[in-house]
């Protein structure tokens, strides 16, 4: 569905260095990124701000022409066959609507139908289906500018899907949404992917989206693809194993157990980090044999924490592979 | 090309239908913009309240220039005038969204918020043309009669080309928007008057550099059977359609170049 | 120190950020100045002493008015309109400063910045192509006063138009009406001296003439400068007082409706 081979994009920025003097500097926004996405995949695309995420998305959708490298999306070259690709692609920007402010949602969607030349019968059928799934009914007659953020996002999703695209590209679709709206959008996307088989590429800063939806995660940093693998593989990165919290009968010095390392001691409580492949049951058994244990809790690794540590360079990306 | 025209038609129609939901406001706003456009005619009327000739041309002849200039300009404005908003679309990021759709972004910009009031400004020049044509002191040969619609059509095409050229420059210089108005709105104002009021070098500039003289001045010399102050060959008077084709071709090339640059620099 | 000078100063400085845009607009102003000058020269060739002016007066007037046009904002508009429509104006009304004072200070700063940035190209173009009547220092001072008063009158009118949105909810209807009146009666379309007599006398008493025609005449040294300034000052005072009264009504309306 998507093939990217050693894609690069450099921009020339002009900077004011003196009162009048300006110098040109070349900046690599994307610096040799390669990946493929197979049909039916649901891929999360992560990266800190300014890492090159939007630039990649713009190149995949044909808005920007790459400086070098090859891209095929739906079998097409986005920069040369932009218009043909547009028919097979749905794109949603969370922070910017592609609908028209002054038109009621229904008219906006009618305009989209004409842009994509969707046949009237097919349009009605899809609109009915999307209206039911996204619960658009109550605000179809409302001008877009009066919609709440959650309503608008659902409207944008409908607009992006009216022409039944093979690939859906989402740029932060849950930004600013409340808990309920987020859940609606996520459930919808999951159905779309599993039932219809639409390939989805999701860019987000909300790791809840990723955990809930994506089987595969790509992380871009400094213009390079720093991680590409399953969510489990990301969890199993160095030092990111599960945490065992044990409450002993009384305060003790850090316990010594094979296959676990004590990270923190607070009174009778101790935090043990289990590496990704460690067997929690045997560690617990070993502990219980040597110490009087009051309570035990096993915490899954926090994806948010892992990603934060990756971004800040505390964990090397190489370990994540 | 055919695809673009069809897309233009369907999009404009969709916007018209949306606008038709508020008929009263549509008519009032149409009248208001027609009144603004009528100011230039009022200006000409005021000048002729004090004199009988301006640059050697009488009131009927100047109003003929006004009417043909404004028919062409208003038609071009209705068709492509929105291209002027390109810099705003780029700045607000809405242009990216247009690139994601399977229709030329020029068509999308031009049809945005298409409203019938764009055509309200046609009423005054059309009425004035009807009043003034029988009062023109010229012998109406078949060629002269045919030239009137031809000059409006070529004028419209020349102005359309100018709108697109000016928009194409905005891809490179976002801030150029204000200066482009000299060519479009300035051109609209300048073609309302006989070129004989302007200095000769200035007229050479708007003949050979920016071919505004071909909007209506050169064909009007043919219709009115008047000598050319610059003494250009008689064939120049019939050159408007050819000039229009050239301007539109140039504009299409410029638009493509601008779009290519936009997509490689990501401004 | 009062907050108003700061508002004006920030508004002035904000203009500097749009240097390139202002220059581009200035070029268009210069071009229109050129066109109008040619047309008026043709007119004065037919009627050499029309309205007591000579052709050089008409040419200078063409370029001076193009230099003024952006600063006195002949084409209308005040950012306040958008804030009223969106409801953001409620925030402004809760501030411990007067709404009118805030926007007046902002507009004076904006006008000064615009004059500095946009008057160059038309004046330069006029001076190079035709040569302009250059006033002496005394007249320059009078013109500066007349310019400030013109901005006050312009603000007074645009502020009333903006406040009408409290009642009309939309300015798309009133904006073109204001535009037609301003362009026609300010002397932008043609100088008021070209108007036939009864119309000229009426136009001379209306506030729009204070925007372009009167400062233009002060620049040329035509007519009684003291009378011209008094005329502008009277309109400025009347419009600002009306603005203050309407602000009060708008505030009451907002309170009643709860925003």
How would you sum up this structure, described in words?
Chain A has 11 helices and 13 strands. Chain A is α/β, with parallel strands linked by helices. Chain A folds into 2 domains: 2-235, Rossmann fold, CATH 3.40.50.300; 240-300. In chain A, a hairpin with a 5-residue loop joins strand 1 (2-16) and strand 2. Chain B has one domain (2-261). Chain C has one domain (3-253). Classes of the chains: A alpha/beta (321), B mainly alpha (267), C mainly alpha (259). The interface between B and C is large, with 38 and 35 residues.
How do the strands and helices of this protein lay out in sequence?
The complex is a heterotrimer of chains A (321), B (267) and C (259).
Chain A: E1 2-16, E2 22-37, E3 42-46, H1 53-61, E4 68-73, H2 82-86, E5 89-93, H3 105-116, H4 120-134, H5 149-161, E6 167-171, H6 179-196, E7 199-203, H7 207-213, E8 216-221, E9 224-230, H8 231-235, E10 242-248, E11 261-266, E12 269-274, H9 280-290, E13 293-299, H10 303-311, H11 317-320
Parallel strand pairs in A: 3-7, 3-8, 5-6, 6-7
Antiparallel strand pairs in A: 1-2, 1-4, 8-9, 10-12, 10-13, 11-12
Chain B: H1 2-19, H2 23-50, E1 53-54, E2 57-58, H3 59-80, H4 86-92, H5 94-99, H6 105-111, H7 123-132, H8 142-172, H9 177-190, H10 200-209, H11 217-224, H12 240-265
Antiparallel strand pairs in B: 1-2
Helix pairs in contact in B: 1-6, 2-3, 3-7, 3-8, 8-9, 8-11, 8-12
Chain C: H1 4-16, H2 19-46, H3 55-69, H4 80-86, H5 89-94, H6 99-118, H7 120-129, H8 137-163, H9 165-168, H10 174-185, H11 197-205, H12 213-220, H13 225-257
Transmembrane segments (chain C): 20-44, 115-134, 140-161, 173-195, 229-250
Protein name (chain C): ABC transporter permease
Keywords (chain C): Membrane, Transmembrane, Transmembrane helix
């Amino acid at each position: 569905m998507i093939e990217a081979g050693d894609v690069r994009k450099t921009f020339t920025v002009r900077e004011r260095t003196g009162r009048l003097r300006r110098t040109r500097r070349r900046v690599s926004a994307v610096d040799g990124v390669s990946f493929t996405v197979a049909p039916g995949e649901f891929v999360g695309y992560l990266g800190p701000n300014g890492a090159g995420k939007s630039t990649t998305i713009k190149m995949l959708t044909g808005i920007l022409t790459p400086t070098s490298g090859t891209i095929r999306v739906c079998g097409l070259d986005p920069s040369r066959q932009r218009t043909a690709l547009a028919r097979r692609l749905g794109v949603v920007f969370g922070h910017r609507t592609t609908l028209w402010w002054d038109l009621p949602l229904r008219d906006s969607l009618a305009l989209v139908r004409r842009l994509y030349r969707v046949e009237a019968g097919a349009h009605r059928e899809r609109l009915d289906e999307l209206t039911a799934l996204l619960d658009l009914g109550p605000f179809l007659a409302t001008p877009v500018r009066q919609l709440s953020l959650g309503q608008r996002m659902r409207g944008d999703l409908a607009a992006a899907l009216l022409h039944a695209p093979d690939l859906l590209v989402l740029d932060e679709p849950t930004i600013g949404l409340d808990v309920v709206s987020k859940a609606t959008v996520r459930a919808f996307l999951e159905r779309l992917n599993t039932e219809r088989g639409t390939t989805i590429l999701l860019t987000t800063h909300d790791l809840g989206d990723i955990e809930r939806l994506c089987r595969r995660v790509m992380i871009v940093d400094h213009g390079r693809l720093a991680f590409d693998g399953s969510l489990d593989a990301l969890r199993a990165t160095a030092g990111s194993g599960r945490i065992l919290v044990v409450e002993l009968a009384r305060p003790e010095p850090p316990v010594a157990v094979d296959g676990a390392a004590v990270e923190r001691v607070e009174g009778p409580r101790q935090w043990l980090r289990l590496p990704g492949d460690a067997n929690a049951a045997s560690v617990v058994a070993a502990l219980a044999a040597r110490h009087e244990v009051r309570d035990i809790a096993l915490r899954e690794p926090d994806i948010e924490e892992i990603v934060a540590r990756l971004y800040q360079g505390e964990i090397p990306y190489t370990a994540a592979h | 090309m055919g695809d673009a025209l069809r897309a233009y038609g369907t999009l404009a129609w969709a916007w018209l239908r949306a606008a038709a939901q508020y008929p009263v406001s549509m008519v009032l706003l149409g009248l208001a913009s027609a009144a603004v456009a009528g100011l230039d005619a009022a200006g000409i009327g005021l000048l002729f309240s004090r004199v009988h000739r301006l640059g050697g041309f009488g009131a009927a002849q100047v109003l003929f220039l006004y009417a043909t200039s404004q028919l062409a300009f208003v038609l071009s404005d209705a068709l492509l005038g929105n291209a002027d908003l390109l810099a705003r679309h780029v700045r607000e990021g809405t242009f990216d969204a247009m690139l994601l759709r399977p229709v030329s972004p020029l068509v999308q910009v031009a049809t945005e918020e298409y409203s019938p009031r764009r055509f309200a400004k046609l009423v005054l020049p059309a009425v004035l043309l009807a009043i003034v044509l029988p009062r023109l002191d010229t012998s109406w040969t078949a060629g002269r009669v045919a030239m009137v619609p031809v000059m409006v059509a070529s004028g419209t095409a020349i102005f359309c080309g100018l709108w697109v050229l000016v928009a194409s420059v905005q891809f490179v210089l976002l801030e150029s928007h204000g200066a482009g108005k000299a060519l479009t709105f300035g051109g609209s104002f300048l073609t309302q008057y006989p070129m004989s009021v302007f200095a000769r070098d200035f007229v050479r500039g708007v003949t050979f550099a920016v071919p505004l003289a071909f909007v209506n001045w050169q064909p009007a010399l043919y219709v009115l059977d008047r000598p050319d102050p610059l003494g250009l060959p008689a064939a120049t008077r019939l050159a408007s359609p050819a000039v229009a084709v050239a301007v539109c071709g140039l504009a299409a090339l410029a638009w493509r170049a601008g779009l290519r640059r936009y997509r490689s620099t990501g401004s | 120190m009062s907050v108003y000078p700061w508002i004006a100063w920030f508004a002035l400085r904000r203009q500097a950020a749009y240097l390139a845009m202002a220059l581009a607009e200035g070029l268009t102003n210069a071009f229109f100045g050129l066109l109008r000058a040619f047309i008026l020269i043709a007119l004065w060739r037919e009627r050499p002493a029309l309205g007591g002016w000579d052709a050089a007066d008409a040419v200078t007037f063409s370029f001076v008015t193009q230099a003024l046009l952006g600063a006195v904002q002949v084409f209308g508009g005040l950012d306040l309109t958008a804030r009223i429509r969106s409801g953001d104006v409620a925030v402004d009304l809760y501030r411990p400063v007067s709404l009118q004072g805030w926007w007046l200070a902002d507009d004076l700063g904006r006008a000064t910045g615009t004059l500095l940035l946009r008057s160059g190209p038309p004046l330069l173009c006029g001076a190079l192509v035709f040569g302009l009547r250059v006033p002496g220092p005394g007249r320059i001072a009078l013109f500066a006063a007349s310019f400030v008063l013109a901005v006050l009158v312009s603000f007074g009118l645009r502020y009333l138009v903006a406040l009408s949105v409290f009642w009309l909810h939309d300015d798309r209807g009133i904006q073109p009406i204001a535009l037609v009146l301003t362009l026609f009666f300010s002397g932008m379309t043609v100088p008021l001296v070209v108007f036939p007599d009864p119309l000229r006398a009426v136009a001379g008493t209306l506030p729009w003439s204070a925007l372009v025609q009167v400062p233009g005449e002060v620049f040329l040294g035509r007519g009684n400068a003291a009378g011209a300034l008094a005329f502008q000052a009277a309109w400025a005072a009347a419009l600002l007082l009306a603005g203050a009264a309407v602000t009060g009504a708008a505030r009451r309306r907002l309170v009643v409706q709860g925003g």
